[in-house]
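Can anyone check this?
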Amino acid sequence: MQYDPIKRSLGKKFNKRPFLRKLFYRLLDLLLLRTWHIKKAIRKWGKQYKNGADILDAGSGFGQYSFYLSKQSKKNRILGVDVKTEQVEDCNKFFGQIGKSEKVKFEFADLTKFEKEKEFDLILSVDVMEHILEDVDVFKNFYQSLRDNGMVLISTPSDQGGSDVHDEHEHSFIDEHVREGYSVGEIEEKLKSAGFSKVEAAYSYGTPGKISWKLSMKIPILMLNMSKLFFIILPFYYMITYPISFILNYLDVNMKHKTGTGLIVKAYK
């Protein structure tokens, strides 16, 4: 099952006009449960930064989180970094088109080597660490790049089936993952070894989230891998299933989970 080719294909279709790009972001916001969790954490964090903050979007991808952060406060200064140069160029072009290039910039960077001494108040890392083998090196760079009292916010799969892997003989739903997921203890230990004084890790994608993910992501991607003709059917599919997913997402974000396939991690300097 191929996830990234579908994601790239959708990105290209919505990238032809700025209003289509914004629509794409909105669709991602609605469909991706991790976005619900991340936005909730950002809103809580942002209450202490009314006059703006310096933010690193570490693994910025399509730039949807940088866009959201730029809307939270016009005074926020955001640097997005990614190893995919085509996405860096694409994001710089889009944010220039919408008049945000002074406050939001993108550049190529390898997170295992990227470090800017005490430059950021917030570092955001969404679905990135499962792609990087040298994760402790990245955590150390995050620590050095944070100002005192700064926070790293991480979303990553857990080891409870987070990459749609449930036993040792299965393969990840995402081909590029170098690990199937973290345990709470493992990621807390690694972040503390990098210097962080306080780490909070909580499960996401509990029972409601797992059902929602299958409805809103797994089944559509399975269909699209069979035939691109399912692009035509997809809007009708979501008309039926999304109200259910919306309720499930709301429950997942507002419940505490004993286990789950995702982790939301906050680490403080």
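Reply from J.R.: I decoded it. Strands lie at 54-58, 77-82, 104-108, 120-126, 146-157, 198-204, 262-268.
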